[in-house]
Structures are given as C-alpha cells and as structure tokens.
C-alpha cells in the first residue's frame, strides 16, 4: 500500500511539472497578431501579404514586412471565396502565394492531439504501473496452487562441502547420492535401484540446511529447494497441488535433487491432529507419497528432506522406497567444534595467540549454529571495545552470552538480594564441588544473565553421550543446592529457586517414568506423549497406567527428591564455613572463575561424598 501512495504522489508531481513546462513554453513564444478576415482582405488589397498557409480553419499569414499573423476562417467555405466576398480583387489575390494543407495532415493532428492527450497518456502510464503492482500481488493469490520452487544453480553465497565442518558420514552419504545422479548407468546396470529419498535428521542448528545447500553448490545437478511450511501457507487445499507442481518440474529437469526443508511441518503423523489444519497436511503428505511411489526404477530424481523432529514423522514416509536413507547429524564433538570455529573465523581478524581448541573445550553441547553465533558475538564484542582484533577473552565472554543471554549488570540488586543470590549460587557450587564424580565448577556468578539471577556453570571433563543414574542423582542434589542454602542461611525461601525446582521435578519424574531408574517401579516406561498437530508441541501425555501406578510414580518422584535433599542438607550444614567463604568472595567479586573458585575450595580439603 505504501508503494501505491508513493506512485500516486509521483504521478501528480510529474503531471504538474509537465503542465508548467508546457505553459511556460507557450507563453515564451511570441504571440502572433490575430486578424479578422476583413483585416486580412484589406492587407491583401494593400499588397502587404506575401504568403498565406491554410490548414483546416487556421490561416497563417506571412506579411511582406516579415511579421506573422493568424486568422481563422469558417470550415465550410474556401478561403478564396471568402476573401472575394470581402472584396479582394483577383489581381491582388494572384500576388499572394497560397499554400493549402489538407486537414488530415499529420502535424495538424499532432498539434491538436499532443496537448490534450499527452497528459492522459502520462496519467495512464502511472495507473498501468500501479495496476501492475497490484496485479502481482493478486496473481500471487491466483497462482497459489503453483509451487514457489527455487532452483538453485548460481546463488550468491555458494556453499561447498569444505564450508561444512565434521558431519563426515552425512557428507559421504550425500556425495554418493550425487554420484547416483551423475552416473546412473553404473548403478542401474548392476541392478541397483536409485535411492528415492534421503532424510537428514538432527537437532536444530546442526547444519542440515547448510549441508543441503552444499549439495547444490557442489553437484552439477539442478537443485529444487522448498520449505515444508510453504506447502501449507495461506490457503487450504493448495499443498497437494504444489507438491504435484514441484515434482512435475523436477521430473522435467531430471537428473535433479528436490530438497524439502523442515518436512515435519507436513510429514507429521497422520490422524494425530485436532483442528482444521491436519486434513490439509494429510493431503499434502499423501501427495508426496504418491509422487515418490510414481518414480520409475530409473527416475533420476532424489528427494532430500530435513527435519529435527523425526519422532513426529509419519511412518509411511519412513518405509523403504521412500526416505529409505536416513542420515543422522550429531552435535559436533570437540574436533568438529574446533573445525566449525575455524570455518567461522574466516574473514574475522583473530589475535595471533588465539587458541580455538580451548574454545572448543569450553563449548560442549553447542551446535554448529551456536558456534557460528559465538564467533559473531565475539566479533561484535571486540568491535564494541574498539579493538583491532578478536582475542581469546572476547570469545570466552561470548560463550556465556550465547548460553544464558546477555549480562544484565544494570539490574540493581539490593544488598539483601545480593546476599541471597550469593548464598544461593554458593550452594549450587559447593554441592557441585562436594559430590563425587560431578563436573568441575567452571564459573560462578551473581551477575544476572538472560532470565537467570545468577549462575553456576560446570563443564564436563570429557564428552559423554550417555548419562548414568549416579550423575542424575548428583544433578538433582546440585539443583537443590541453591534452595537448601537459602533455607538454612535465611530461614526463608525466595522465588529465585523456582526454576531449579521445576527442573529438578521434571528430572526426577523422567528418572521414574522414562529411564527406568527407580528400583521400585522397575524397567518400565510410563505414559505416551502425544503430538498435537495444531500447536506442534507436546501437549498431552497420554496416561497408559492405572491410578494406583500414578500414585506410586508420584511417591517415587518424591523419594528421589527427598534423597537428593538429604544429601544436599548434609553438605550445606556440615560445610557451612566453605559456603560462607564462597558467598563472601562472590559478594566481593560477583564472578569467580574456575581457578579462583578452586583456590577457595581446595583450602578446605573437601572429601568427595555420594548422594
Ligand atoms: P539446521 O540444521 O537447523 O538446518 P542450519 O544448517 O541452518 O541448521 O545451520 C545454521 C548455521 O549454523 C549455518 O548457516 C552455519 O553457519 C552454522 N553451521 C551449522 N553446522 C555447521 C557445520 N557443521 N559447519 C559449519 N557451520 C555450521
Ligand atoms: Mg534448517
Ligand atoms: Zn539456582
């Protein structure tokens, strides 16, 4: 709408400019003398006229003194008859040079048309532009059944496999897929079937989209890109026709790759939904299945799809002959993280003594996207400090920012609040340092960050993919550390512990219902989580157990919490002097790094305990 008003404004301005130009142009011209016909007759008789030009009713008179005059005559009668009737003699007439131009003369029409029509043309032109713009909006609405397919061949920021760190198996798999397309004969001759679909699975930010773009960048095959949500936008009922359109286009361009990003937007389990949206998804999904089944043995089209929710994908999508190849993209391990950091430090000015390995060590659990974001935050931080290059410290500071949100130093704490926060965090930190097998404390701070009032960071010594019951018990005790410390030192509880308690309760419940870690309940999982399609979130947990079991579960959850609580109480009461030392230092310095914290705790020679 904004462009429309702008266009109208332009049209008006142009119109005004042109009309003023015309009027100035005309008024500048010397206005010729205007004569009546009898004056013309007199001048001819007086032998003052050298030439008369007639076009239509206009009469231009050229006088012998080189001046010009104009006159008009009636349309019906000839000029000569008129002049004769005014008493001009034949002799006099013969001395005048007559030039009669036909009415339909080009210049005659132009002289009439241009002044009157030109403004109309100009206005019309602007209307045309405006309508055209409105129409593109409209035609988008009218061609909604057509897929908005993006064909990637030469897009600007081309991504190559070398821009993707780690993910070796995934890359290998995809290189193979491209090879199928390039040398299909090799595979077909030996009787192999070209795979139809490759599903990239991985948590958000692990580089699924990036990898797909790398296929487009590397492979010399056409690459059609579409996002799952684009199938279902705006109008109901367009999804399946878009799918048809996409596959038709692709088959014509074969050999080629179709990439459907975020396929979970359409590929959700059918029949699981409430609300109107799910029918639409179902049809779209069915159409994809139909199209994929319609591939001949030698159809050289491969569908690559990406999702971070494989659990919600329809089983029909996953059966052989459809997305029969599944590639799992793991969160990067330490080597891969270092590599990702290297890739994203390209084009950034890093200090010479930068040790990216150290950064990688400190960022377990970061995804590729987190690491990319980390490098960018570090660069912004360095620029804000007016540095010429990014140093190690900038990156380490940014780690916490990416983890917890920006520091909120501006949030002023009263002395009382500061003390409470210090004892709360000291509680977490002390329990962490006291328990056998828990990860070392990496940083304790009472500076608010993101939504947290303060924080205690611990970092694993080595990366693990599995967690054990004793680790979970430690976690529970550590989570309660803040709550217990507040209770013991202030005989009161603040709201600052609420998030800890929430996490602890959820964890304890998972121990019982998901991990089978409760001896009493045994190795059984309880509850089935249902996906509600219309919100796309886990909303309900279907209860597949009796009321009696439910109360037993609750009892076991409470038992886990009580057990952790006892251990935490014991630590905090028996080591009150250590707690006070940590809290005092925190109030003084606000943030303690690993070494400072270790120095305080080591002075007390703590014996490791178990929950
Ligand atoms: P998703 O898996 O959610 O689709 P993306 O592919 O969009 O994640 O990744 C987001 C960004 O994270 C990428 O643009 C890239 O900058 C960075 N990234 C993720 N994984 C990697 C990786 N393995 N190597 C390099 N950069 C990565
Ligand atoms: Mg993505
Ligand atoms: Zn806490």
Oligomer: single chain
Total DSSP E strands: 16
CATH top level of the largest domain is Mainly Alpha
In DSSP terms (H or I, runs of 4 or more residues), the helix count works out at 21
- Report, as a whole number of angstroms, the end-to-end distance: 66 Å
Would you give the CATH topology of the largest domain?
Methane Monooxygenase Hydroxylase, Chain G, domain 1
* Percent in strands: 5-15%
Outline of the structure:
The protein is an alpha/beta fold. The chain is built from 21 helices and 16 strands. The chain has 4 domains: 2-106, Signal recognition particle alu RNA binding heterodimer, srp9/1 (2-Layer Sandwich); 150-329, Rossmann fold; 334-403, Helicase, Ruva Protein, domain 3; 415-602, Methane Monooxygenase Hydroxylase, Chain G, domain 1 (Up-down Bundle).
Describe the model.
By secondary structure, the protein is of the alpha/beta class. It folds into four domains: 2-106, 2-Layer Sandwich (Signal recognition particle alu RNA binding heterodimer, srp9/1); 150-329, P-loop containing nucleotide triphosphate hydrolases (Rossmann fold, 3-Layer(aba) Sandwich), CATH 3.40.50; 334-403, Helicase, Ruva Protein, domain 3; 415-602, Up-down Bundle (Methane Monooxygenase Hydroxylase, Chain G, domain 1). The protein is built from 21 helices and 16 strands. The chain has helices spanning 2-28, 37-45, 79-85, 90-94, 106-142, 168-182, 184-189, 208-218, 239-253, 277-293, 315-318, 334-344, 356-361, 368-384, 392-404, 415-434, 469-490, 498-513, 547-574, 576-589, 594-602, and strands spanning 33-34, 49-55, 58-63, 68-72, 97-101, 150-152, 197-202, 223-227, 256-261, 301-307, 325-329, 441-445, 455-458, 528-532, 537-542, 591-593. It has a six-stranded mixed beta sheet with strand order 6-8-9-10-7-11. A five-stranded mixed beta sheet has the order 1-4-3-2-5, covered by helices on one side. Helix 1 packs antiparallel against helix 5 and helix 17 (469-490) crosses helix 19. The two termini are 66 Å apart. The model is unreliable at 272-276 and 531-538 (pLDDT under 50). The structure holds adenosine-5'-diphosphate (ADP), magnesium ion (MG) and zinc ion. Adenosine-5'-diphosphate is lined by residues 164-167, 202, 204-210, 340, 343, 368-369, 372.
